[in-house]
Amino acid sequence: MLNVQVPRDRKKLEKQIKALECLLSQDTDEVSKNIHRQALESCKQALNNC
Q: What does the alpha-carbon distance between residue 15 and residue 33 come to, in Å, rounded to a whole number?
């Protein structure tokens, strides 16, 4: 499991989520896709807890 440091600020979290979604659409290798998916999931969970 990847340990992701997520921002505590709601606006920063929203920006991070958008950036990760953009990266996922452009990733070509599975390793990067998995890392970005895990980071995206962590950010979305943090956003739901704000």
A: 18
Q: For residues 2 and 32, give the distance between their C-alpha atoms in angstroms, rounded to a whole number.
A: 12
- 4-24 pLDDT per residue, tens: 888 889 999 999 999 999 999
DSSP string, 1-43: -------SSHHHHHHHHHHHHHHHHH--SHHHHHHHHHHHHHH
pLDDT digits (tens, 9 = 90+) for 22-44: 999 999 999 999 999 999 999 99
- Helix, strand, or coil (residue 49): coil
Tokens of 12: 């920063």
